[in-house]
Write the structure tokens for this entry.
Amino acid sequence: MSKLEIKNLHVKIEDLEILKGVDLTIENKEMVALLGPNGHGKSTLLGAIMGNPRYEVTEGEIYFNGEDVLKMSVDERSRKGIFLAFQNPCEIPGVINADFFKSAMNAHSDKKISLYKFYKELENATKEVKMPFDLVNRTLNEGFSGGEKKRNEILQMKLLNPALAMLDEIDSGLDVDAINIVSEAINKQFSEKDTSFLVISHYARLFDLIKPTVAYVMINGKIVLKGDESLIKRIDKEGYTWIKNELNIEIEKTDKKAPISIGTCATKEVIKNGSSK
Amino acid sequence: MVVLNNELYSLMPLELSGEDTYFINSESYISKDIIVKENSNIELYLTHFTNLDLNFFVQKGATINLKILNLEGEKNLNLKGNLSKSAIFNIFLVDLSKEKININSNIILYDDDSESSFNFSSLVNKNNLKKYNISYSHIGERTISNLKGFGVSMDTSELNVNGVSHIEKGANKSNANQSVKVILFDKESKAKASPTLKIDCEDIKASHGCAIGSLNEEHLYYLLSRGLSEIEARKLITYGYLLPISLNYDEEIRKIIEETIYRSL
């Protein structure tokens, strides 16, 4: 059983207020879609729940299973069952994937995992995400393709078996086959384990495959709409301008950008700015 | 595998040939000329030493890999190298001692197509100072030098790396690279890295860079988000800095390196 409750959450990055009063509840075994235009705070919300040290919570509360998340360190949040699949997972030179996975699994367990059990679980998880097993002996994300990095995130989700998995654009940079593999792994986790999901994506294709039970739309740093599958379909077809008209919301332009961080999609930044600088 | 002992005290230069692995174990001062004979392929381990001056002459087509492991004791090490046509001289240094060390390395890439690398992994702790002066002179054409180092400085210690690569006139199409990265583990520890390129020839390639700083916050956040405590995450990142060089050592020494790094952090 897990429940995430967010009340009136305000978050700043440096001097820029990104989240301006987010209210959101995720019940046990919910598959939640989070949509919204770029730069309106979706990734910031996930980062704030995980505890990104660059984000400052200025107001509001986050509770997970009744416990105050904001009082917990990042690693405590993870050990309580919160997981974030990063939009742009970082490369850490010299750190071997398998060593890292083992440390992470040990951190989530009262007693050290045996080598046999570790490799068995690792083998099963790599098979599930169809990742070549030799990638686990490579350094963490170094030289991985975009798709391999994303599958490596899902692999970690499988190994850590979280109560709440937050996936930040897990489908970006994936080809059709890889999206199918990742969505199958998500569906298996959702149906077989007690994991709730909070999923950001810009593409209906992923949502078609994982079938969220609830969808929220975030605009101007707030949740402005709640709906179901039909809301995702409408946004996919018509974009976000109808929300402006129907709800009488002015969608703020995001000229003043949040600082680029680990949660930022590097590819998107390059496309937006026309350069990598 | 041959352990060198009496040979080191003879007045004659030491000649190494064929394909073999040698060990130098000596606690007394030694100054020695070492000739690596033509087309030979030599591994030379330096695991126990105090004060050493070694002067290498690497003949045509020969390769020598000098593998240094420093675990304890104050030390001075002076290395010189003179490379003939197509000779290769690679130096690997794993320096994990809790005492001071001064290392001076001066390699002359004298003939065409010769190449050399200096690779180090260094842990400086217990209020200590480690100094490495590493210099290369490119004289022959198409010569290559690579200085690549990783360091961790902790407990009010200091790592001081001075790298100079000089590409002299006429050393056309030569290539010099320097890259030094140092993590400062705490606020009191220090590091200085001075990568210098002196270029007197136009048709060459050269690059240099150094990065000194505390642990990358984003890397730390990523590991913490998987449940690792900050101490564990810091250790894992630091192992990642220091361990990869150990792959160049034989299995027994690699284990010693791994265990010493685990114990030291």
